[in-house]
Amino acid sequence: MSVLTSPVSIAVENEKNPWVAAAVRFDEAASRLRLDDGMCQVLRTPTKEITVNIPVQLDDGRLEVFTGYRVQHSLARGPAKGGIRFAPDVTIDEVRALASWMTWKCAVVNIPFGGGKGGVICDPNLMSDSELEKLTRRYTAEIIDFIGPERDVPAPDVNTNEKIMAWIMDTYSMHARHTVTAVVTGKPLSLGGSRGRPEATGRGCMMVTLKALERLGIPPELCRVVIQGFGNVGGMAARLMADRGFKIISIIEYDGAVYNPQGLNIAELELHRKVTGSITGFSGGEDLDRQEAMFLDCDVLLPAATENVITSSNANRLRCKILCEGANGPTTPLADEILADKKIFVIPDILANAGGVTVSYFEWVQDRQGYFWNEQLVNQRLREIMEESFDAVLHYADTHGVNNRIAAYMLALDRVASAIKLRGIYA
Which of 31, 106, 208, 243 shows a CA-CA span of 20 to 30 A to 43? Predict the structure, then answer.
């Protein structure tokens, strides 16, 4: 088969292109699975790419047109599933890559969804609630023929939240003329949200980290953790890991980092940030340069913020034993080889942060049943899926002699390709 790209052939200037990164991992996994060119083309190509232009009347009376995207990468195993982000730097390449990652993520944890992703180019920090609601509702109206419980189920992502999901659900329901709670996940509990959903991604990161520690023979109470990001994923992972006995020695945020070799008190740090607006200046630790904090000696590094934070220019400086990728795409393909040389145990993003989409799946199931589970049952079922998926990825890695990331891609591609072969090609 022809391979379009390989890690050694990526130009450094393209290293941070998420679509290129997704293609590199795809190509290596497909080559090892010996998938033919036709199947590779089907798996690689998004099913639909939707671009919409969204006119919004701002509070001062001006009209502004925003551009939005929705990409449905694969529908082979079920409806598309993936978040919607509002950010000024959204690009179609980014949305394509994230949609493909969602396909593989859902397949890795074996839930019956394909991959989707959406984005709107805007700066929500400069917009009022009224403007954001108008933007959300008009964006929903523009893509309404392509979403739905059986078609494509959006969720929160960067700069979106349960309030925005409620607006999407209401807009869709008004057009459907009846309430359709299962059209989105990540909703408020009172509108059909699931217990355990806010904690799910961070909790899933902790669950697979525990499995990795078990494999490496490191007791959790002796484990030193550095977490980049103190938002929903990083903050929740920090809180849950601290409760479990992990020693969180550093938290890194956009405006600085805080460090305590004896372990930070996460509850007090959260209160400090709530009062001051920053993690810096915390009396329970010392301030560090945010870049240098990434290279602290630790057992686990958990990047839980943005893409492309571990690259060919800094991967050789990492001093962790385990890299648990709480964010989407935090590591570039050129960095993968460096991590392998350093024998860092990588828990790849499409496994590590799949707790969020897994509990989103639970929310969708509960909405469709009209029957809701308690948090204990949600967490029990999440643990079963995360641990089984971790074991399945490690089995692929051991069987095929590949790193964990390529093993996760091989498992995912195999499952999606099998579904396509069983369904056949409609003509």
Answer: 208
